[in-house]
Amino acid sequence: MARAPAMIRKAGRSGASGALLTAYEELVLPSLIRLACSQPSFAPWRMRALAGVRGRVVEIGFGSGENLSHYPAAVESVAGVDPSARAVRSSVAASLRAPFPVTVHQAVAESMPLDSGSFDSAVATFCLCSVDDPGVALAEIARVLRPGGLLYFLEHGLSPEPRVAAWQRRLDPIERVVAGGCNLSRDPRAMLVRAGFEILELEEAAALHPKPWGYLYRGVARPS
Ligand SMILES: C[S@@+](CC[C@H](N)C(=O)[O-])C[C@H]1O[C@@H](n2cnc3c(N)ncnc32)[C@H](O)[C@@H]1O
């Protein structure tokens, strides 16, 4: 079933439980996400995912700038896109330490305030699980990439183990509430193919525990 965009979901909340959920999302969740995303076991995956990134880069779901220290020397500039004001604020310190210019736009990946064909590389790490409409976000990525530009991705997603996948589907409604709209059972490969991307490279593995959160997809894709 289609979900209301995050802004509308928030605006539609009322009463004490709505206020509590909004406070949790604004005060607690960003630190939890930051803690989860900065775990050291992700570092080798990030390095592999970002090794080929070059030129002018657009990074959707920029968060607190966790990828900045993993970008290779061929990167000229990074434009981050994230709807979270708190994430954008907390990315400032990391951006100042980067050896290339970084600008962060408070916006959703589904509607980026960026010119068409203006980026050499696009990056999505642990983000396509959370965007409201991955199909529209991927179409936007295709729009802002120059001809021949590539998308570098690293995502958690659907496990090929049926028992784990069943748990992922069961847990999705809870995960969406406690983890800022994150879905466990999305299939990054299927989403990319549906959005018209050609997958040039794909590494996948049951990399972490607990298993419903631990199946990773890393690769490179080209809009066709
Ligand atoms: C799990 S965090 C990952 C952060 C970072 N990419 C990383 O690898 O550590 C997901 C991020 O996606 C952002 N996000 C959620 N919905 C989004 C959307 N529609 N467009 C762009 N970013 C979004 C969240 O605000 C959050 O910063």
Describe the secondary structure blueprint for this structure:
Elements: H1 6-11, H2 15-37, H3 43-50, E1 55-60, E2 75-82, H4 85-97, E3 102-106, E4 119-125, H5 134-144, E5 145-156, H6 162-178, H7 188-194, E6 197-206, E7 215-223
Parallel strand pairs: 1-2, 1-4, 2-3, 4-5
Antiparallel strand pairs: 5-7, 6-7
This protein binds S-adenosylmethionine.
S-adenosylmethionine binds at residues 33, 37, 60-61, 63, 66-67, 81-84, 87, 108-110, 125-127, 130-132.
What does this structure look like?
With about 220 residues, this protein is an alpha/beta fold. The protein has a single domain (about 5-224), classed as 3-Layer(aba) Sandwich (Rossmann fold), CATH 3.40.50.150. About 40% of the residues lie in helices and about 25% in strands. It has seven helices and seven strands. The chain has helices spanning about 5-10, 15-35, 45-50, 85-95, 135-145, 160-180, 190-195; strands at about 55-60, 75-80, 100-105, 120-125, 145-155, 195-205, 215-224. Helix 5 (about 135-145) links the parallel strand 4 (about 120-125) and strand 5. The longest helix has 23 residues, at about 15-35. The protein is globular. The model is unreliable at about 1-10 (pLDDT under 50).
